């Protein structure tokens, strides 16, 4: 089993103990569970076949392991820095690695061929995003933002905007940003104050300050396309008065080449806990030239296109950091000798992987990685179906399910990513706490996932209120039906623990959904107080479901079953699913109690502190 | 200048290797990939073809079940087309049988230069390229670590036991390159997509006019009689660092006659 766990396409050693090997076999399996082979049957994907997808995964995996990953450690220690002229200097090796990524065309995989893309499903592209994030999370956020912005322009841009910007953005030659947050407008974007003023020629001038602007200034490219959320003069207050503006660092002239610098600047780059090489900028706009994208005052919806894509992509950072942390912890646990086991020969010590508690932690990290990966891929597979599905009804249903999965994929996967890196660090004992072991970086990097792109608390509210309560729980119920359909076909007794825990979780999620759907109008605070637990309940149930589906795929393909897989693979997959069922999925009944406990349980905090709510 | 490059497709490095008695041939039931040493051959072939002013780079291979995964990798890197011989009668071929088939493919490809790796990572016989040269009547330039061409000749720096030597050789010729000789490019997405529409011709022995009794198990003149596990390497000598490590190393190297 050991060798299978580490199955990968690369033979490179990379940077010492923290090197990354793309888990090609696991990723290909996850694509299958997410339904990618079925997607390839759709007419829009006729030019893509399974061997090509597998080849793309293998080759990009090698590229990520051998070219991107070696830049990661230096990026963490040096960070991206602002120079005295307001430019941002990235760490050694970043420019070259990014340049080779652009040249390889990898970032264009999922975009229309018309703009130089490969026309692949997003569900395949996310696998590349994940490998990129494992190799260097700080750098990977740059293309994640660009790719979200491409979707925004594809859907909302006019022909001229698309023709001018898309070919360069699709390739990654001109990266893009997403600038929403302001000092007084974080979770509540309706409060933002950056202003846009229309000019007589129909263009716009933007003024204001954006904070936390990721990759908003750097030296990786000739130009940067800022997507800025602002309020046009005279617009209504709140989110109904927002518009999206495209503000190039150097607005292109008629030839399309970047012209003179726009009046915007990076005033500061923040010091922070992790992702040191990803510059987090304070951006000042002083009558900067911009173009309106989409409808005036319709900016919230326009931005939502980008946010939905970016949220799921950020979700992929969960399995990405977890995977790399697992590889490190697994290698360490086989080498580190400490204590003895009954089977240890006299005078020798046991590698810590032989201790049951260490094995437990490693398998926990492993199963959280697998489950969160498949949940994220499955979310994008629904988005692909929503765009390219066979009939109107299928597309509409997939759109609803995608909407439902976005907050779960983002929040649950990033939470598991952080938990997994913490456990992987724990496996290292004291040396894990030292920077030298390079696992501390995983933990620090992983911590941002639950915060940015909408905090996980906000995702939970989005799920409970917008995605469940507002449609009367229909989308979630249909998902629950699919979960139950899988439970019914699980082979017993091999997947007994999975079947039992999944059935229980199904019951808990069904009950919680009915409660959330019904309660929100009458007692919103009760729902809000239980929203995080509800999202977690949905997350573990989905995680258990995809683990069961993976075990089922392996079971059906076991030797003699026809798919030519390795000896023991089905048993390992079943064991992993059963482990997840016991360690994680079995929380479901307790989570249900928490969902429905109501807001009364919070009064100790509010009532004991005068002046609070 | 048209170049043919030999490509072996081997089990992926992460799959456990299994040998099939009685002849102890490697079991090739799982999926196969481009053998790593051959990636240097492909890169060299592409560079030499470019240097000569262009021409076809034809990938030639022999593999069971019409396996093309490794060929697609070579095509994605930039090769023009591929010729594959896949025939059940080839199972159990020895090095000479393989050389016979590859030589026939070289003739069919009509290439002036044949590039191969010095040895495969699974078989390690290291004899196929020179046997192929003999069958074709071409000179063989082996163990090249740097090669250039003017289209009519190749100029190679050969790795030898005692250092290196420079040789010049008229075409046609067979060339073998060492692993690490060149930095192998990474395929681009465009390369992968365009590889899909490049021609891959899958041939049987009859297409090449090869008598089945001269290849495969029937024609094999080499036989593996038994196999033994290699002795584990001993731990070596550990020298504790007391600041004199370098002197010990020099001493050791002198004793071995390296210095
Ligand atoms: C490294 C980094 C990179 C970033 N990159 C970008 C970027 O590129 N572009 C960009 O626009 N932004 C970016 N952000 C900003 C990020 O999206 C915000 O920090 C985040 O949305 C939270 O906003 P806030 O910091 O103002 O916190 P607040 O909104 O003040 O939230 C504080 C806490 O209160 C909770 N909370 C707030 N409102 C509610 C509510 N209504 N109900 C329940 N709980 C609530 C939150 O969940 C959180 O726990 C980045 C942030 C960081 C740290």
Brief characterization of the structure:
The complex is a heterodimer of chains A (613) and B (259). Chain A is of the alpha+beta class.
Structure report:
The complex is a heterodimer of chains A (613) and B (259). Chain A contains 22 helices and nine strands. Chain A is α+β, with helices and mostly antiparallel strands and 613 residues long. Among the domains of chain A are: 176-304, Butyryl-CoA Dehydrogenase, subunit A, domain 2 (Beta Barrel); 456-600. A five-stranded mixed barrel of chain A has the order 4-5-9-7-6. Chain B has helices at residues 36-51, 69-77, 95-109, 128-136, 189-195, 205-208, 216-219, 245-255, and strands at 3-6, 9-11, 19-20, 25-26, 32-34, 57-62, 81-85, 113-117, 140-149, 153-160, 163-170, 173-177, 200-203. By secondary structure, chain B is of the alpha/beta class. Chain B has one domain: HUPs (Rossmann fold). In chain B, α3 (95-109) packs across α4 (128-136). Chain A binds chain B through residues 3-4, 6-9, 11, 25, 47, 49, 51-52, 55-56, 58-59, 62-63, 67, 100, 103-106, 108-109, 118, 564, 566, and chain B through 12-16, 29-30, 33, 36, 69, 72-73, 76, 186-190, 192-193, 196. Bound molecules: flavin-adenine dinucleotide. The site of flavin-adenine dinucleotide has 20 residues of chain A, from β3, β5 and α16.
């Amino acid at each position: 089993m050991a060798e299978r766990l580490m199955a990968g396409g690369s033979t490179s050693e990379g940077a010492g103990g923290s090197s990354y090997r793309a888990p090609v076999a696991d990723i290909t399996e996850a694509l299958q569970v997410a339904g990618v082979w079925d997607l390839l049957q759709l007419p829009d994907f006729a030019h893509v076949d399974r061997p090509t997808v597998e080849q793309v995964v293998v080759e990009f995996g090698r590229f990520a392991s051998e070219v991107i990953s070696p830049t990661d450690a230096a990026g963490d220690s040096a960070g991206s820095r602002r120079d005295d002229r307001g430019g941002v200097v990235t760490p050694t090796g970043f420019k070259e690695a990014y340049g080779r990524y652009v040249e390889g065309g990898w970032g264009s995989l999922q975009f229309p061929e018309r703009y130089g893309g490969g026309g692949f499903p997003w569900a395949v592209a996310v696998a590349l995003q994940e490998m990129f994030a494992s190799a260097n999370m700080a750098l990977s956020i740059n293309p994640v933002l660009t790719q979200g912005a491409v979707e925004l322009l594809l859907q909302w841009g006019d022909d001229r905007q698309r023709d001018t910007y898309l070919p360069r953005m699709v390739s990654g030659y001109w990266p893009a940003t997403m600038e929403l947050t302001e000092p007084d407008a974080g979770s509540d974007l309706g409060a933002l104050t950056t202003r846009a003023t229309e000019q007589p020629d129909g263009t716009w001038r933007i003024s204001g300050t954006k904070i936390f602007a990721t990759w908003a200034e750097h030296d990786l490219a000739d130009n940067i396309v800022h997507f800025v959320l602002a309020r046009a003069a005279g617009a209504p207050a709140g989110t109904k008065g927002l518009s999206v503006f495209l503000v190039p660092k150097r607005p292109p002239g008629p030839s399309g080449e970047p012209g003179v610098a726009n009046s915007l600047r990076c005033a500061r780059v923040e010091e922070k806990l992790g992702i040191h090489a990803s510059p987090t900028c304070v951006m000042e706009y002083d009558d900067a030239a911009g173009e309106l994208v989409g409808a005036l005052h319709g900016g919230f919806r326009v931005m939502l296109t980008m946010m939905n894509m970016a949220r799921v992509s950020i979700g992929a950072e969960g399995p990405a950091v977890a995977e790399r942390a697992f590889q490190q912890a697994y290698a360490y646990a086989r080498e580190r000798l400490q204590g003895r086991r009954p089977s240890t020969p006299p005078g020798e010590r046991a590698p810590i992987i032989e201790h049951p508690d260490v094995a437990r932690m490693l398998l926990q990290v492993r199963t959280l990685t697998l489950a969160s990966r498949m949940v994220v891929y499955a979310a994008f597979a629904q988005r692909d179906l929503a765009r390219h599905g066979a009939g109107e009804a299928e597309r509409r249903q997939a759109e609803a399910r995608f909407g439902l999965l976005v907050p779960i994929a983002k929040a649950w996967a990033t939470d598991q990513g952080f938990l997994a890196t913490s456990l992987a660090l724990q496996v290292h004992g004291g040396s894990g706490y030292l920077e030298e072991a390079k696992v501390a970086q995983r933990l620090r990097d992983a911590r941002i996932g639950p915060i940015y792109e909408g905090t996980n608390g906000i995702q939970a509210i989005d799920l409970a209120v917008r995605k469940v309560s507002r449609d009367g729980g229909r989308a979630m119920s249909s998902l629950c039906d699919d979960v139950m359909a899988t439970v019914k076909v699980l082979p017993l007794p091999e997947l007994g623990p999975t079947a039992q825990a999944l059935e229980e979780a199904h019951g808990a999620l069904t009950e919680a959904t009915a409660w959330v759907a019904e309660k929100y109008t009458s007692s919103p605070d009760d729902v809000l107080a239980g929203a995080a637990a509800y999202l977690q309940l949905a997350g573990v149930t989905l995680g258990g479901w995809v683990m069961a589906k993976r075990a089922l795929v392996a079971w059906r393909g076991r030797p003699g079953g026809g798919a030519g897989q390795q000896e023991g693979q089905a048993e390992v997959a079943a064991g992993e699913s059963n482990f997840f069922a016991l360690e994680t999925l079995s929380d479901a009944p307790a989570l249900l109690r928490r969902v429905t406990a109501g807001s009364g349980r919070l009064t100790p905090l509010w009532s004991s502190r005068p002046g609070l709510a | 200048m048209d170049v043919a490059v030999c490509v072996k497709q081997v089990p992926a490095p992460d799959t456990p290797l299994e040998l099939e008695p009685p002849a102890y041939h490697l079991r090739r039931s799982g999926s196969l990939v481009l053998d790593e040493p051959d990636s240097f051959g492909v890169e060299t072939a592409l560079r030499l073809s470019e240097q000569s002013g262009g021409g076809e780079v034809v990938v030639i291979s022999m593999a069971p079940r019409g396996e093309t995964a490794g060929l697609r990798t070579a095509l994605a890197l930039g090769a023009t087309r591929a010729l594959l011989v896949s025939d059940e009668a080839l199972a159990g071929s020895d090095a000479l049988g393989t050389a016979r088939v590859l030589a026939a493919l070289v003739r069919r490809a009509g290439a002036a230069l044949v590039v191969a790796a010095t040895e495969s990572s699974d078989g390690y016989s290291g004899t196929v390229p020179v046997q192929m040269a003999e069958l074709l009547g071409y000179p063989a330039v082996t163990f090249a670590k740097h090669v250039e061409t003017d289209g009519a000749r190749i100029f190679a720096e050969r790795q030898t036991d005692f250092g290196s030597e420079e040789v010049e050789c008229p075409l046609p010729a067979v060339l073998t390159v060492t692993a690490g000789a060149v930095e192998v490019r990474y395929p681009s997405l465009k390369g992968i997509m365009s590889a899909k529409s490049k021609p891959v011709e899958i041939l049987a022995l009859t297409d090449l006019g090869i008598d089945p009794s001269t290849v495969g198990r029937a024609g094999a003149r080499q036989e593996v009689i038994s196999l033994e596990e290699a002795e584990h390497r001993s731990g070596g000598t550990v020298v504790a660092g007391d600041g004199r490590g370098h002197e010990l190393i020099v001493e050791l190297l002198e004793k071995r006659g390296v210095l």
